[in-house]
Specification:
486 residues, alpha/beta, Heat Shock Protein 90, 4 domains, elongated
Length: 486
């Protein structure tokens, strides 16, 4: 039985060329990589609106290099410490324009729009190094050019090589905070969340929650497009561990409230992106259904309720129960499974059964004492003057709420707020509070960003008139305006 070797179609070759890079800067990055592999110590990049030029002073391309260069998938770099390996990266720049390589006395021309191949010519000029020049198939605007330049600068971490873009030396200021024989963790004012391999950008840091970068100092296994690490490879596995160590180390060095997004950190712990160290266990990261945060150690061994903020969770919090926001429940469950040392008892019961709320009811004015009636007159005047009487003001009784509203037609004040005249400022605050609610808060006392913006706006717009009202509204006034109370 005879054996026949598989053949490669032109359509596959075209796909290999056209679908690798995806953007111009990745194609230019490949040219820079070739210069580094050629031993260059200086690389210059010039980008116009209709051309790209890349020069390096590395080794001149010899016959073997040329043969390898013209056969896709053929590479003299396999098994070496060079950055390149697969012998296909040269195609990343070809989709963008009419290309020319000049090295020594050889010139190679490639225009894949006309022919899926190359043309070799001799040159009288002996170019010491390599020059690449590309006339772009499609011109780019000034904004697009600057965008490419900015991205390209963020993809380079020169290490002992002078790389110039538009005659400006690329030299990002970096601070190394963690170093091993294979990886450097570093911070930069310009570059954030990137992984470099041998000083060239590969991809973003997975599961990163902080602004730092990593340079892989050894040759890793990458995919053909050089934008992802191969899973299961030893270097990739160690890189994942290094990412986790960096996340944990940087997080541990921050103060409790120096982290903007606590939920993001909880998610990172649940995904295993960071380690739950003793230091992190002492940080206030877990948001309650109120305005406080818990540490992992505070919650250890405790009974946990999960709820949105409402009148029932507020009651449990006041009575010393631990009530965590519902949206964190799944994340905490993952963390508890990952770290057996955490021992939380999750209460599946409805928090309404544990809340001490016995009643919320409206009562008649006749049930008020004379002193309460006087203060209710002040409350009615506040409602009329400050809030234009847009909602009816009523009296009620509750064992937990100072006031509540249906969100559109009425506000009910707890009669106990009217015991003393000194409580009138609290009555004013409650009115501002309830008018800031535009939905029913008898069952759900929800406070979001919109609510607090509305609340502070009402305080700001009414506080001066409130001060004037307290000075001018005398007993004679309220007996005249509200005779039914007396």
């Amino acid at each position: 039985m005879s054996k026949t070797k598989f053949q490669t179609s032109d359509s596959l070759l075209r796909d290999v060329i056209e679908r690798q890079s995806g953007n111009l800067e990745k194609g230019i990055l490949e040219l820079i990589q070739n210069g580094i592999d050629a031993g260059a110590d200086e690389i210059r990049i010039d980008i116009g609106t209709d051309y790209v030029e890349v020069l390096n002073n590395g080794k001149i391309m010899d016959d073997e290099d040329l043969k390898s260069f013209t056969i896709f998938g053929e590479s003299r770099k396999r098994g070496t410490n060079s950055i390149g390996e697969f012998g296909i990266g040269r195609g990343q720049i070809m989709p963008f324009g009419n290309c020319m390589w000049h090295s020594g006395k050889r010139k190679m021309y490639v225009n894949i729009h006309k022919f899926l191949g190359y043309q070799l010519r001799s040159s009288k000029v002996n170019f010491k190094g390599s020059r690449f020049f590309c006339v772009l198939y499609r011109k780019i605007g000034t904004w697009d050019r600057n965008y490419v330049l900015g991205n390209l600068k963020d993809m380079l971490l020169p290490n002992g090589i002078n790389i110039y873009i538009d005659d400006g030396l690329v030299k990002p200021a970096i601070t190394i905070f963690k170093e091993t024989d294979k990886f450097d963790g570093f911070e930069s004012s310009r570059i954030h969340g990137k992984i470099f391999a041998n000083s060239l950008y590969v991809c973003s840091i997975p599961n990163s929650i902080l602004d730092y970068n990593i340079n892989v100092k050894v040759k890793p296994k990458l995919n053909f497009a050089r934008n992802a690490f191969i899973s299961g490879d030893e270097i990739t596995t160690r890189l994942n561990t290094f990412v986790r160590e960096c996340n944990t180390e940087l997080l541990t060095n921050k103060k409790d409230r120096d982290i903007d997004n606590h939920e993001q950190i909880i998610r990172a712990l649940a995904r295993g992106a960071i380690e739950l160290t003793d230091e992190i266990k002492e940080k206030k990261l877990i948001k309650s259904a109120g305005d406080i945060y818990y540490t992992f150690n505070e919650l250890n061994g405790k009974k946990l309720f999960f709820s949105e903020r409402n009148m029932y969770s507020d009651d449990l919090l006041r009575r010393g129960y631990y009530v965590v926001l519902t949206e964190l429940s799944d994340y905490l469950a993952e963390i508890i499974c990952e770290y057996p040392g955490l021992n939380y008892e999750v209460m599946d019961d409805d928090i309404k059964e544990f809340a001490s709320i016995g009643y919320h009811r409206e009562i008649s004015i006749e049930k008020l004492t004379p002193a309460q009636k006087k203060n209710f007159a002040y409350a009615l005047e506040m409602n009329k003057v400050l809030f234009l009487g847009k909602r009816n003001l009523l009296i009620g009784e509750s064992d937990i709420a100072k006031a509540w509203t249906d969100g559109y037609s009425e506000v009910i004040l707890n009669k106990f707020l009217l015991e003393k005249k000194s409580e009138l400022l609290e009555v004013y605050r409650c009115l501002c509070h309830e008018y800031s609610h535009n939905d029913d808060t008898i069952e759900e006392d929800y406070h979001n960003t919109r609510f607090f913006e509305e609340f502070h706006s009402r305080i700001y717009n009414t506080i001066s008139r409130m001060q004037g009202l307290l000075k001018t509204f005398t007993p004679a006034n309220y007996k005249y305006k509200y005779p039914d109370l007396f």
